[in-house]
Structures are given as structure tokens and as C-alpha cells.
Amino acid sequence: MKAGVIGAVILSCLVRPALADDCDRVVAAIVKTDHAPHYDLSTDADTGTRVQEIFTGQAIYIKAGNEDWRSDPKTGDELEADFRRAHEDAKWSCQTSGTEAIGGETADIIAVHHEDNPSEPDSRYWISQSSGLLLKMVIYASLGRHIFQVTDTYDYKNIPAPPE
């Protein structure tokens, strides 16, 4: 259940940009990440619930909290298509708000304001200056009167083997 909420929070925050500048960089980073094998650790700030994701290029393996691993055969093209379909009508505005070192890489931090839900705090995306991949994101989304904060960190070098 919690993994479903975190997934819904992430999906609700990733939207098609209204502006063609820093928003294009965020979309490009999301799409590039969709195609790159990676390990993603997502943590809910309120509950501490952790969701791990391993993407191999041909499948996603997901473990939410203490649940068993589950797999979903998906390619990068399918992930990208899902992302674009889910967010074709939403709007956001984006602005670079600084830089930070993440895992030895310099990342631009881009703040994303959700025009569809202006009461939500701005989400932030850390995009590697050298690779263009997502290194980290902090997203906020409301569910009723509660605002969730979820932090994702990405690793493209130390990807654990998928569970058997």
C-alpha cells in the first residue's frame, strides 16, 4: 500500500513542462534515467519507508519496505512512454537554484513549481552536469490535507544484482 502511495506521489510530480528551459533539462534527465540501468532508493520523510528499485534495461525490480521483491518486465522505451503518457497535460515552471556535489559529481539543482497545484512546495531535481542523469530528487505531493516528501537517490555504478 505504501509503495503505491509513493509511486502515485512520484508520478503526480513528474509533469510535462510549461516552459522550454530548465524544465526541458528535467524532462531530459528523467527520460535519460528511464533508459539507464540504475539503482534508486526512495525514502518517505514521514514514515521512513524505503522503496528500492533496480532497473536492468529489461526489467524493474522493486522492494517496498519489508515486502518481497517483485519484478516488472519493462524497457527504457516503455518507461519513457509511460512517463510521457501520464504527464501530457500537466504544467510546471522550473528554475536552476544552485549546484551541489552528489557522490563526487557536480549537479545542478532545479526547482520545479507545480502550476496545477500551487500550494505544494517546489520539488527539486539534482542533475549531473557531466552525464545529464538524475542523481537525486526531492518531491512533494499532497494526498488530502497531508503533504508527502519523498527523496530518491540514484546510483548508476554500484547496481546490486537483481533478486533471483
Which properties best describe this structure?
single chain; 164 residues; alpha+beta; outer membrane lipoprotein receptor (LolB), chain A; 9-stranded antiparallel beta sheet; 9 strands; 23% helix; 41% strand; disordered N terminus
Describe the structure.
The protein has 164 residues and is of the alpha+beta class. It has one domain (2-155): Clam (outer membrane lipoprotein receptor (LolB), chain A). It is built from three helices and nine strands; from the N terminus they run ααββββαβββββ. The protein has helices at residues 2-13, 22-35, 76-86, and strands at residues 38-44, 50-55, 60-64, 70-72, 92-102, 105-114, 123-128, 134-143, 146-155. Helix 2 runs antiparallel to helix 3 (76-86). The longest helix is centred in the N-terminal third of the chain and has 14 residues, at 22-35.
